[in-house]
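Reopening closed ticket. The problem is back. First fold of the pair:
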Amino acid sequence: MHPIIYDVAVSADGFIAGPNADISAFPHQGTVVDDYVARLRGYSTVLMGRATYEFGYGFGLLPGANPYPWARSIVVSSGLALPETADVEIWRAAPEGALRALRAASAGPIYLCGGGVLAAHLLAMGQIDRLRLKRAPILLGGGVPLFAAMARPPVLTLRDQRDHANGLIYQEFALS
C-alpha cells in the first residue's frame, strides 16, 4: 500500500492560495521550490480536485491534458466535463474503497496535489499519510485554506524539517 502525501505550499496563516486562487505571493524559485520539483518525479499517481486542475488552464493547460505526464493523474469532480480522449481520469467521488484500491494499484506514492476541499475529505477518512508543507512567511488573509474543514484534527509527528532562505521552511509530518 502506497501512501497518500499532501505536498503543498502554505502561508503562515494557513492558505494554499489567496483570494481568487492567487499564488503570486508564494516563492516561485529557490531551494524550497527546487526540492519540491525534485520530489514531484517520485510520485506515481496524482490526485487533485476540479479547481486545482482547472487552475492549470490559466497557465496553458488544455482541458483533458495531464499536467503530470509521467504519472497517472486523477481529477475528483462531480461536474467537470473533459474530452473523451482526456489524458486524466475523472472520479465523480473519492470513496474509501476506491482510495484503498488506488493505494494498492499505484506503482509508488500518491501525490495529493490539492485543493483544500479534497484534502479535507481525505483527511476526514484518515486517507492522508503524510503532510509536506512548504511554509512561506506570508499572510494572505483569506483564500483557499489548507483544509476546508476539520471535524477531528489528526495528530502530527514531525519527520523532517529544513530551513531555507528568507524564512521559508519545509516540514514533513506523519499523520495519525
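Second fold of the pair, where the issue appears:
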Amino acid sequence: MLRTPSLRKRMACWLYEGMLLFGVVFIAGYLFGTLSQTKHAMNNRHGLQAFLFLVFAIYFTWLWSKGQTLAMKTWHIRILDKDGLPVSQARALARYALSWVWFLPPMVIAWPFNLPAAEVAVLVFGWVLVWALLSRFQSRRQYWHDVWAGTQLVDVQKKP
C-alpha cells in the first residue's frame, strides 16, 4: 500500500522547494533581463512574470514526469498518478496549472483593493495554511489539487 507523506513532511518539502526556486528565478530573471535588455526591475514586469510562469511550468512538468524534484528527492516523496504509475507530462502540466490554487485565490482577492505587499503576504500565508489543512478532509490526506489532477504524493523512505 502506498503511504501518503505526513502534512509536516509535505510542507517541509514545499518550503525547501521554494528556497531552491530562488536559483531558478535568479537564472531565469537574468536571462530575461539580458535578452529583453530590461534596465529596471519594474520595467517589463508583466513580461517577466509570464516568462517565470512558463519557466516554472517547464521545471515542474519535466521533473514531476521524472517522478521527483530535488526537494521531493531530499524528503523521500515521489509523485505518481492515481493508479501508482509514473506521471505523464500532460498530467504533470495539469497538476502544475491546478497547483496555482496555492496562490491565486488570495492574490485575486487582494488585487482590487491594491493592498500593500505585507498584507498580500499575510493573505497568501493564511491561504496556504488553510489549503494545506484542507488535505485533512480528503480520504487519503492528499492535497485537493492532486486529487483533481489524478496524482498522488507517496512516501518512498526506506524503512530501517
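Update: turned out to be a display glitch only; the data is intact. The chain has a mean pLDDT of 94. The first helix runs from residue 7 to 36. Please close again.
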